[in-house]
């Protein structure tokens, strides 16, 4: 689906004279292949004959699930980055641009970390815990320390202890919310003259955040209702996409280059 059209356009010279674009397209192809191989490696971890003999539920490795999700986000972000580099309108410099873009970059990184922590929640079936209410966990703000630190060394608890994994995911979700709120504060502070397109993107980010947090809470209190959990897993792509658009704001400096009667506008990234 991807490789044949890519070879066709390369052979016809559509990208001649643009080695960076060629390298990016080839990189996407290799990432796609790696994603397929890693997907099989992940699934293989759940094909234990003992589980089938004992008629137990097959469960894949949480580490491999998180790696598979990480690579999926990397592939998706790379496609978005190349697409935005070709089509995203340039943005003139405006007061507060550095602060807004910096906070957007921080928010995007925290969102990514939150999503990966969610992979460990899914892989460990940690979403089945503490479904008696939100935001409390068993009637407490956080579970007892002895439940959070059952493994040695301590950092294994974040990846192998279901109680710690869900707590970590909740903390990261709260951190993501705080980062996006701070991004809005920076964009609306006195002296900042943020373009309408950026304000609109932030409103979309805010809406996606509210939806994602609501879905997360609903997933917990319903003990991982299958439909809610599937939507909750897929929604981060929307949140990351819009935040990444602000992340990739371009300086208004365009250069038109002709490619076999086709024009592509390349916008140079802000320093």
Write up this protein:
The protein has helices at residues 3-11, 19-44, 49-53, 62-87, 97-123, 145-148, 156-160, 162-187, 196-221, 226-234, 236-247, and strands at residues 250-259, 262-269. By secondary structure, it is mainly alpha-helical. It has a two-stranded antiparallel ribbon with strand order 1-2. A hairpin with a 2-residue loop joins strand 1 and strand 2 (262-269). Helix 4 runs antiparallel to helix 5. The radius of gyration is 22 Å and the shape is flat.
> Mean pLDDT, as a whole number?
79
What is Rg? 22 Å
Please report the number of helical segments: 11
Order of H and E elements: HHHHHHHHHHHEE
The backbone outline, from C-alpha atoms, is: flat
Supply the helix-strand structural class: mainly alpha
SS strand fraction: 5-15%
The span between the termini is 35 Å
Tell me the number of strands. Answer: 2
Q: Tell me roughly what share of residues is in helical segments.
A: 55-70%
Biggest sheet overview: 2 strands, antiparallel
- pLDDT < 50 runs, ≥5 residues: 253-271
Biggest sheet, spatial arrangement of strands: 1-2
Please outline what is shown here:
The chain has 271 residues and is mainly α. The chain is built from 11 helices and 2 strands.
List the helices and strands and how they pair.
Elements: H1 3-11, H2 19-44, H3 49-53, H4 62-87, H5 97-123, H6 145-148, H7 156-160, H8 162-187, H9 196-221, H10 226-234, H11 236-247, E1 250-259, E2 262-269
Antiparallel strand pairs: 1-2
Helix pairs in contact: 2-4, 4-5, 4-11, 5-8, 5-11, 8-9, 9-10, 9-11
């Amino acid at each position: 689906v991807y490789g044949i059209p890519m070879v066709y356009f390369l052979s016809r010279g559509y990208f001649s004279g643009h080695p960076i674009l060629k390298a990016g397209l080839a990189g996407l192809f290799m990432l796609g292949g790696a994603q397929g191989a890693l997907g099989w490696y992940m699934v293989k971890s759940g094909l234990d004959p003992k589980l089938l003999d004992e008629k137990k539920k097959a469960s894949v490795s949480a580490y491999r699930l998180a790696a598979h999700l990480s690579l999926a986000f990397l592939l998706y972000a790379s496609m978005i980055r190349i697409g935005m580099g070709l089509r995203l309108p340039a943005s003139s410099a405006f007061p507060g641009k550095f602060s807004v873009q910096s906070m957007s970059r921080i928010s995007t990184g925290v969102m990514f970390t939150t999503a990966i922590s969610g992979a460990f929640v899914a892989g460990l079936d940690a979403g089945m815990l503490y479904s008696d209410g939100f935001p409390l966990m068993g009637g407490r703000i956080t579970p007892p320390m002895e439940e959070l630190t059952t493994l040695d060394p301590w950092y294994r608890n974040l990846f192998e202890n279901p109680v710690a994994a869900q707590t970590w995911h909740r903390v990261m979700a709260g951190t993501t919310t705080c980062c996006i709120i701070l991004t809005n504060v920076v964009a609306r502070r006195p002296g900042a003259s943020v373009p309408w397109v950026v304000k609109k993107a932030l409103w979309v980010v805010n809406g996606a955040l509210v939806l994602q947090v609501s879905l997360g809470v609903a997933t917990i209190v319903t003990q991982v209702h299958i439909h809610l959990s599937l939507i909750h897993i897929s929604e981060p792509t929307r949140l990351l996409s819009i935040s990444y658009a602000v992340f990739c704001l371009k300086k208004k400096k365009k250069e038109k280059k002709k490619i076999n009667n086709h024009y592509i506008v390349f916008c140079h990234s802000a320093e």
